[in-house]
Write a structure and sequence with these properties.
alpha+beta, 4-stranded antiparallel sheet, 2 helices, 8 strands, 18% helix
């Protein structure tokens, strides 16, 4: 009986480690631009603000930069800390805009886990047809309770000068 319990506990521990490894290494490549330390930690990495760049997958010629808080310490170093909902976004036209496919209002263009299981930082896109503007909104959601903290950036669709790229 004790041997069966030991095997079950070992199996659960191995499964937990495999899931944690999958979670840790399945994070998308975000293209980190830079980071600044905001709080010294005696043990583990410092708390910081990280700035990442990403391109809208359906709109060529638009790049967004998102800055978000990243918790350090032992939990942060292991990747199990829950990061705050603080984030800011800025999106710009960096070349001729080419829309690839149909744009759906509220379509997710970026997401990142902010805790092991329940919290996600997301960026969604809206198309303001009246003003010919793309609108990007960053926010955090949680399985039970999200955060009203958000940030917004607008990109007017403008002609790109010929010869510039």
């Amino acid at each position: 009986m004790m041997r069966k319990i030991g095997i079950a506990v070992t199996s659960l521990a191995v499964l937990a480690l495999l899931l944690f490894g999958w979670w840790l290494f399945s994070r998308p490549d975000r293209g980190t631009v830079g980071e600044v330390s905001t709080k010294f930690r005696w043990v583990g990495p410092n708390d910081k603000v990280v700035v990442d760049a990403f391109a809208d997958p359906k709109v060529q010629g638009v790049v967004c930069h998102i800055s978000r808080a990243q918790t350090g310490g032992v939990k942060g170093g292991l990747g199990v800390a829950e990061d705050t909902s603080d984030a800011a976004i800025a999106c710009r036209q960096v070349g001729p805009i080419e829309i690839k496919g149909e744009l759906k209002n509220g379509e997710k263009v970026f997401d990142e886990r902010r805790s092991v299981m329940f919290k996600t930082l997301q960026v969604v896109r809206f198309f303001d047809q009246t003003n010919n503007v793309l609108v990007y909104v960053s926010y955090s959601d949680r399985v039970i309770e999200g955060s009203p903290q958000n940030s917004i950036s607008s990109v007017p669709i403008m002609p790109w000068p010929s010869g510039a790229s």
